[in-house]
Specification:
The protein is mainly α. It is built from 8 helices and 3 strands, in the order H-H-H-E-H-H-E-E-H-H-H. Strand 2 and strand 3 form a beta hairpin. The chain is globular. The relative contact order is 0.13.
Length: 139
């Protein structure tokens, strides 16, 4: 069996003092950290999310995941489409800036794999700079 790649996500110290994070319960904080660092994440912060898998990973019920998630989504203005199971963390790029032009190209490839809709359109604009403010300018 091939070993899993070591993938990590950053958790900035600022998060611990963010008013919305501080207002969460202990269980909601754990789930919020899971949503930004867990094994279901990807490099663009817009990914298919399975509450059942999160429940299994965290050792809680799916009902608890969904209840805690609704509080977290409201607190951080994140979006989850229950029908398609897509989670969009709109602030992702603010906390995960690009390391270079190659990462931007990887983001573009990941975005092209998203279903058509608001997250894909907004991320495309953000990364490609259609709004006049690209996340990384070509040099």
């Amino acid at each position: 069996m091939k070993p899993e790649r070591d993938i990590y996500r950053r958790v900035y110290q600022h998060l611990w003092r963010h008013p919305a994070f501080r207002a969460l319960s202990e269980g909601e904080k754990v789930l919020a950290l899971y949503l930004v660092t867990g094994p279901q994440t990807n490099l663009i912060g817009c990914y298919r999310f399975s509450p059942a898998l999160a429940a299994e990973d965290l050792g809680i019920s799916t009902v608890q995941v969904k209840k805690r998630m609704s509080t977290i989504l409201a607190a951080f203005d994140w979006t989850f489409d229950e029908g398609s199971q897509w989670l969009w963390i709109q602030s992702w790029f603010r906390w995960n800036p690009p390391n270079g032009i190659h990462q931007k190209k990887s983001w573009q490839n990941a975005i092209s794999g998203l279903p058509n809709g608001k997250p894909r359109d907004a991320l495309t604009e953000l990364v490609n700079g259609k709004n006049g403010n690209p996340i990384l300018r070509e040099q």
